[in-house]
Amino acid sequence: MAADARHYPDRPYLGVSVAVWRDGEILLVRRGLAPLAGFWSFPGGGVGLGERLEDAARREVREETGIDVAIVRPIDHAEIIVRDGDGRVERHYVLIVFAGRPTSGEPQAADDAAEARWVAPEELARLNLTEDTRRILAAGNPL
Fold first, then answer.
1. What is the pLDDT of residues 57-92, one digit of tens each?
2. What Rg value do the Cα atoms of the chain yield, rounded?
3. What is the pTM of this model?
4. Max Cα separation, the chain?
5. Which residues pair with residue 82 across a beta bridge?
6. End-to-end Cα, the chain, rounded Å
7. Residue 45, class by beta-carbon neighbours within 10 Å (0-12 exposed, 13-18 middle, 19+ buried)?
8. Which among 16, 57, 71, 73 is least buried, having the fewest CB atoms inside 10 angstroms?
């Protein structure tokens, strides 16, 4: 099995995530894999070579949750830098965060998501959200 180039990378990796809102609730996934396994965040993942950002965003939401989305616009960015005990960069991702609206489907966790569901605002304080997800949600619904 080939080594994962994203583990102890020689450069940052580009990714996307999508804040999908429906009737006041936000679509979130609980991460099943490193980095950030167990944390709740917006669905998203890596951008493939030759793939447009919005196409990658739609694909990642569909792969992780089964939800089809319309991308509205970019709303933020996030930088995920994970260091090991020696201070070496173990993971480095730069994410473009989009706002989106669901067009079809109901949440079903798949790919690297351990759980996927619509979350009401009053539930957010009880979830183990990533720092960037919490920061972006604090700004409110951008739609």
1. 999 999 999 999 999 999 999 999 999 999 999 999
2. 15
3. 0.92
4. 45
5. 91
6. 43
7. buried
8. 73
